[in-house]
Amino acid sequence: MAENVVKGPASYFPSIEKKYGRPVGEWLEVVRSSPLDKHMELVSWLKAEHGLGHGHANALVAHVRAEKGRR
Predict the structure, then answer these.
(1) Are the CB atoms for 12 and 45 separated by under 8 Å?
(2) Mean pLDDT throughout 5-20?
(3) Coil, helix or strand for 67?
(4) Contact between residue 11 and residue 26 where contact means Cβ atoms under 8 Å apart
(5) CA-CA distance, 17 to 70, in Å (whole number)?
(6) What percentage of the chain exceeds 70 in pLDDT?
(7) C or N: which end of the chain has fewer Cβ atoms within 10 Å?
């Protein structure tokens, strides 16, 4: 049984790297450096400006917002 199963937004990270060809660290920095603040604004921006799918964009935004203690 796998004890170190990654859960939550980070579970999307391997597929994000594979699909978009950039390390997750770069994507997280893209989100952190955005002037936008609201969750869905950021998700929509990642989808429109960077071509991410909804689930991948949502996972990145959720992870960054959790770092800041936000939901």
Answers:
(1) no
(2) 91
(3) helix
(4) no
(5) 24
(6) 94
(7) N
- Inter-CA distances, 6 with 30, 34, 62, 71, Å: 22, 26, 15, 19
Please spell the DSSP secondary structure of 6-65, one letter per residue: --GGGGGHHHHHHHHSS-HHHHHHHHHH-S--SHHHHHHHHHHHH---HHHHHHHHHHHH
Compute the average pLDDT of residues 19-34: 97
Q: What are phi and psi of 23, to 5 degrees?
A: -65, 150
- Close Cβ partners of 65 (under 8 Å, ≥ 6 residues apart): 39, 71
For residues 33-56, give the mean pLDDT: 97
